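INTERNAL TRANSFER SHEET
From: sequence group
To: structure group
Subject: Coenzyme F420 hydrogenase/dehydrogenase, beta subunit C-terminal domain

Please process the attached sequence and return the structure record in the designated field. Keep the field labels unchanged so the import script can parse them.
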Amino acid sequence: MKPNVTELVVYKDKCIGCGVCDAICPVDVLKMDFNSVGLYQPFESDGCLDKCRLCIDSCPFVEENKNEKEIAKALYSDKEEIRFHSDLGYFIDTYEVHKKDLNDRLKSSSGGAGHALLEHLLEEKIIDTVLSIESNNDVDKLFKFTTFKSRSELEKARGSVYYPTEMSEVLEYVMKNDGTYAITALPCFAKAIRLAQAKNSKLRKRIKIVIGLVCGQMKTKEFTHTLAKDTIGTDRLKSVRFREKQENQPAGNFAFEFIGQENNKIGLINWSDSRGPWNLWSSRAFTPMACNSCTDVFAHCADVVLMDAWLPEYIRDYRGHTLVISRTNEIKNILENMQSIEVKKIDYKKVFLSQKAVVDNKNAIFYGSKNIFINKINKIKLEIQKLSNEDYEQNKTKIDLLLMKIKKFEKIYRIINLPKRVVFKMYRILRGF
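Return from structure group:
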């Protein structure tokens, strides 16, 4: 039997679990489910067609397929007023956006631009259906992709989700139901959608707008369950909110809120707490191995891209701000004429700077770094990634020791990168001069 996506991608630990292969398979031999790591993957049954390549041709991690920049060039390079930046990709304009209604803004991620855009697309009948993520009534699968057809339904689609989801069911829905659709997608998911659209005319004609989310890395579901267990003593959850905004805190120090299934126990843990999400996030614990093969931060294949405004002028405002990249004139006109949001054009260089740390980190993992300390730190992080995905509980002692090692290297790195005058002053103080 010829190789398919299972042999070429899944068995090589390069599957991100997007679900496109399942949706596009003509004989339905691939089914998405969680694997032992806590990440979706396709599981194969008998009946794969020998001459079929659809699963391979639609996979974002098959090296022979077009990369995101090649796909983006075909999509956007001939647009009027188009510009290009090596990291941002093709774009027409860049913006800072936030909702005018404060309560709406506080319930939304960042400035609420994504939720506002989805509402507008439905209300103005630009599309019939939104494909996005909602909380799922299943303790083993806390979130899922689903369809939204009204503003009231979209209330369930607020907020960020740091939990695996997959698109097979909603893409199958698109292929079976005529209409116009917008879909929210991480960079690798957006790439998979574009690859599938090249092979399937229904996906190509019906999905009108792809809304991308800036991404530095995904996490397996064990990221959420480990934090929940540390916070409320159980990983059997009724619900999770990943972006509880904290008044009088910087925008980046939001909280995760966990509610237990059996006793409704509620627990909050701030992003930057010593045992909080940042500690695991930045160490690459629970990061899928496929993320090591990706450098697409700004969702090159998406028509519009949303991100946090990690800039000095916005970071202290807990209410949140969204930075937006528009790659089409349609999106540009929509954003500039929406009544529910405040929109301000912002220099594209600032948009890049807001995510420069993410870009640098992904590039250092993928290409390596010229800096010996960064390479040493990343080598430790890759070991943490491996150990956490094998068995976090069993390897926790090793992981904690590696985390301490990272902190030591980071401390040394910060000291040697201080201005020389500061280093000399510290040296004189230590020597008693």
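Handover comment: Residues 5-219+289-358 form one domain. The CA atoms of residues 397 and 403 lie 10 Å apart.
Transfer complete.
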